[in-house]
Amino acid sequence: xxxxxxxxxxxxxxxxxFDVAQYAAAxxxxxxxxxxxxxxxxQAAQEIKAQFPNHEILFTYRTEDKAETLISADDYAALVxxxxxxxxxxxxxxxxxxxxxxxxxxxxxxHDFTQIPQNLPEILSKMVESRATTVKFAAMPQKQSxxxxxxxxxxxxxxxxPDVTLVSMAMGELGKITRVASDSFGSSWTFAxxxxxxxxxxxTLEEMVKFRELL
Length: 215
Ligand SMILES: O=C1C[C@@](O)(C(=O)O)C[C@@H](O)[C@@H]1O
Hints:
about 20% strand, alpha/beta, single chain, 7 helices, TIM Barrel
C-alpha cells in the first residue's frame, strides 16, 4: 500500500520551510492546493517540485470540504488542464464537475464529511464510468457497521475492477482501522500526516510506517 503524505502550504514562504527529510518514507506527496491563493500556484508548483525532486506528487484542489464555493467550474477545469501535465497525478472531483475532460493521470475522487452514503456502490460505479484508472473515496462513518460497509464495498469493487486502482478510507476515529489495513480489502493508498492532518483520523507517517512493518 502506498503511503501518501499531504502538504498544505498557505503561502510561498511556507514551501521553503518544509523539513523535507521528514517526508522520506512517503511514497507520494499530495499537494493540497486549496489552501493557497490561486495567483501563486504557478510559482508554488515549481518550488514544490524543487523541494520534493524524488517524490511523485498528487495535485489536489479540494472543494468538497468547503461550505462556500471558492472556485468556479470553469476555473477548476482550467486548473486541472494546466497542472495535469506537471504532476504525476491530479485529483478530480468528477461527480461535482462532470463536464471536465479527464486527464490520463486523474485520480477521480468523492468525499462525504458527514456520513458513509448508502449509495456508495452507485457512487463508485459512476466514478469508474469516467474511465479513470484511479478511484478514490473518503467518507465519515457514524457507526461501526458503516466502516464494515465501506470495507465490504471496497473488496467488492476491487474484485470487480482489478484493472482500477481503488483508494478508499473511512475518516475519523472509527475509520482509523481502514487507514492501516484496507489494503487487505483492495485499497491501494493510505494517507498519513507529517505536519498536520488534511482529514480527520489520519495517523502520522511515523505511526503508519510502524503499523505497516508490524502488519
Ligand atoms: O482524498 C483524500 C483523502 C483524505 O480525505 C483522507 O481522508 O485522508 C485526505 C485528503 O487530503 C485527500 O485528498
